[in-house]
Amino acid sequence: MRFLSILCLMALIAGCQTQTADPLAAEEAAIQERLATTDGGQILLRAIDAAGGIRAWLEAPTSSYTWEYGGESFLVKSHLVANNRTRVVYHDLLAMGSRPEPIPLEAQMAWDGTDAWVYPDTTQINPRFWATTAYYFQSIPFVLADDGIRTEALPDDTLDGAAHQMVQVTYDDGVGDSYGDRYTLYVHEETGRLSAIRYSATYGRGRPAPDQMNETLMYFLDYVTVDGLTVPTRFESYAYRDGQKGDLRGTASASDISFSEPFDESRLVMPEGGRVQPFPAAGE
Q1: Cα separations in angstroms, 174 against 157, 170, 203, 204, 206
Q2: Beta-strand (E) ranges in the chain?
Q3: Which of 55, 217, 243, 277 is the most exposed place for a label (fewest CB within 10 A)?
Q4: Cα separation of 238 and 226, whole Å?
């Protein structure tokens, strides 16, 4: 009887250990190990740690915020909710047009993992491009730790007189709609925080040669900490050529930030009267 009691106690302890096992530990360890194997990955990991750490990102079920982006002649404003695990996202489009008075909207768009759509179909926006753009920029550096991404350490540089570590990020073929994109991160030497990125957008163009890719310098500004993650609330984008910052191209802002808003799967279903946006054919 005593032997059976000991066996029952051991089984109970084992069961409790199984139930309380950390489901994210292996994923966290795998990401850290993968990034730590290269100099570029170590710089990226430093930026992630300064923003709250990969653990805090993995524990955040969703990302949501009101995001506004525009230049002199174009502005789009929406409230989006993204599933951080599956990377699907839906938006309530709030306004679109030009500054200073964009036109208020009652429209929706989404990326459901297969299709991008907008409702109603008369809404003049490309959801295949815009449905994930705000989410991606707002989620750097965390999303740059995904599989299929390559990092390369570059020589240290300065930005506005401050020393920065530099890392270039590129993608394996077929990773997303813009696998030819290239991101260069400015990681502040003292704080480890991401100060800016340079990027080349290649949506629908495959992998153009570097000399065919125009660069934009985007500053990440006015950081706040929400739900354990430290993220920017303001962005400034400038033309960038021959190592020099050019004219201001656009600004963006994020407000109403949360990493715990519930995700409504029904919002991924396109209402009747919507439009699915196909991926552009070669040459378009």
Answers
A1: 31, 12, 12, 11, 9
A2: 62-70, 75-83, 89-97, 103-111, 116-119, 149-159, 162-171, 182-188, 194-200, 215-226, 229-241, 244-258, 275-277
A3: 243
A4: 27
Please state, in angstroms and rounded to a whole number, the distance separating the CA atoms of residues 59 and 103.
37
User: CA-to-CA distance for 56 and 47, rounded, in angstroms?
Assistant: 13
Angle at 157 between CA 52 and CA 221, to 5 degrees: 40
Q: Report the mean per-residue pLDDT for the chain.
A: 88
Tokens 């429209």 belong to 107
Q: What is the pLDDT of residue 2?
A: 45
- Closest of 62, 88, 46 to residue 227, by C-alpha: 62
Neighbouring residues of 266: CB distance < 8 A, sequence distance ≥ 6: none
pLDDT > 50? residue 4: no
Tell how many helices (H) and how many strands (E) occur in the chain: 5, 13
- Angstrom distances, CA of residue 78 to CA of 35, 36, 90, 166: 33, 36, 10, 32
8 domain-assigned: no
Query: pLDDT tens across 178-217, in order?
Result: 555 789 999 999 999 999 999 987 544 444 455 556 789 9
Report pLDDT digits (tens) over 208-218: 455 556 789 99
Q: Name the residue range of residue 242's domain.
A: 40-277
Domain membership of residue 28 (yes or no) is: no
Q: Which two tokens stand for residue 201?
A: 């957008």
Of the candidates 257, 267, 261, which has an alpha carbon nearest to the alpha carbon of residue 139?
257
Q: Is 1 domain-assigned? A: no
| Number of compact structural domains in the chain | 1
